[in-house]
Amino acid sequence: NLPQHVRLVEVGPRDGLQNEKQPISVADKVRLVDDLTAAGLGYVEVGSFVSPKWVPQMAGSAEVFAQIQRKPGVTYAALTPNLKGFEAALESRVEEVAVFAAASEAFSQKNINCSIAESLERFVPVMEAARQHGVRVRGYVSCVLGCPYEGEVKPEQVAHVARELFAMGCYEVSLGDTIGVGTAGATRRMFEVVGRDVPRDRLAGHFHDTYGQALANIYASLLEGIAVFDSSVAGLGGCPYAKGATGNVASEDVLYLLDGLGIETGIDLDRLIAAGQRICQVLGRANGSRVARARNPD
Ligand code: HMG
Ligand code: MG
C-alpha cells in the first residue's frame, strides 16, 4: 500500500547551493526559489542561518528571504543550528526552521562542532523560542545509513536521535543519507526500527545520490509508508562536511517516479525541469537530473 499523496521538500536552494564554491548572486537564488514555487512546490528550504565561516555560500540568506515572492500556502524554511541562527531567521520572517543533528559523533563534531548530546541541548532554547513565536521546527538526522568518518551507523543510533528531536517538539524528523551509501534493504530496516519510536507520518527521507541508490531507497521508503521526501532540483549539491557526497536525489526524478505511481504531489514536471535548467545554466554545469537530461538532449 503506497501513500496516495507525497509532499516534496525542495532543498535545492539550501542543500543544493551550500557547497558551491563559485559566488551565486542573490538575484539568481531568488529566481530559483520563485521558479520552484511557480512549479507548484509547496515547501522550499531557502537558506541557512549558520556561521558564514563554516558555510560561506549561505551568508546571503537574509537577502534572499527579503526578495523572494512569498506565495500563500508555501512554506519557506531555513536551517538554524542555534539560538543566534533562530533569531536571524525570525528577523527574516521565516515561518519554519530546521535544527540538524547527526547519528554519528564524528559527523556531529565536523558539521556543527559539538557532540550529539551537546547539539540536542543547544536545540532546546531554539525549540522554546520557536514555540513562543509560533514557528514550526523540523529536525534532521544526518548519516542515518553511514558516516564518512565512522562507517557503519546502526538504526538504533538513528532512532535515539530521531526520538529525542521528536520528543523536544520537532513536528517531523527528516532522516538523511548524507553520503548516499544506503541501499533499499538497509533503508527499510532503518525506517522499521526508527518507526517504533517516531510515528511514520512524522518521518521524512532525505537521500543523496552518491551511489545512485536514491530512487531505489525512496521506493523502499514508500513501501514503509513514508510520504515526505527531500530533494534538490537538478540534483544540485552536497554537504561541505561530507567529502565526495553528491547532491540530493533530483526533484525531477522523484517527481517522475511518483507521477508514474499515480501519487499526487501538485507539482508540474515541465516547469520544474525548466527551473533546474535555468540554475544549471547560471552555474555552468550539467543537469544532475536524468529526467531533465532525457527531456533536453544536447
Ligand atoms: P562554532 O564555531 O562552534 O560556534 O560553530 P561558536 O558559537 O563558538 O561561534 C563561533 C562564531 O560563529 C562566532 O563569531 C559566532 O557569532 C558565529 P565570531 O565571534 O567568531 O565572529 N556564529 C554564527 N554566525 C551566524 N549564524 C549563526 C552563528 N552561530 C555562531 N547561527 C556552528 C558552531 C553550529 C555555528 C557552526 O558549526 C556552523 O555554523 N555549522 C553549520 C554547518 C552547516 O551548515 N552544514 C551544512 C548543513 S547540514 C547538512 O547539509 C545535512 C542535511 O542536508 C541532512 C543530510 O544530508 O544529512 C541537513
Ligand atoms: Mg543533505
Give a written overview of the molecule:
Helices cover 42% and strands 15% of the residues. With 298 residues, it is an alpha/beta fold. The chain has an eight-stranded parallel sheet. Helix 8 links the parallel strand 6 and strand 7. Bound molecules: 3-hydroxy-3-methylglutaryl-coenzyme A and magnesium ion. It holds the Pfam family HMGL-like.
Strands in their spatial order, largest beta sheet: 1-8-7-6-5-4-3-2
Bound molecules: 3-hydroxy-3-methylglutaryl-coenzyme A, magnesium ion
Please identify the structural class as seen in this structure. alpha/beta
Question: What is the overall pLDDT average?
Answer: 96
Q: How many DSSP E strands? A: 8
Order of helices and strands: EHHEHEHEHHEHEHEHEHHH
Shape: globular
Structural topology:
Layout: E1 7-10, H1 12-16, H2 26-38, E2 43-48, H3 61-67, E3 75-79, H4 83-91, E4 96-102, H5 105-112, H6 116-133, E5 136-142, H7 155-167, E6 172-177, H8 184-194, E7 203-207, H9 214-223, E8 228-231, H10 251-260, H11 269-283, H12 290-295
Parallel strand pairs: 1-8, 2-3, 3-4, 4-5, 5-6, 6-7, 7-8
Helix pairs in contact: 2-3, 2-11, 7-8, 8-9, 10-11
Magnesium ion binds next to loops.
Brief descriptors of the model:
single chain, 12 helices, 298 residues, 42% helix, binds 3-hydroxy-3-methylglutaryl-coenzyme A, globular, metal-binding, metal ion binding, binds magnesium ion, hydroxymethylglutaryl-CoA lyase activity, eight-stranded parallel beta sheet, alpha/beta, HMG_CoA_lyase_AS
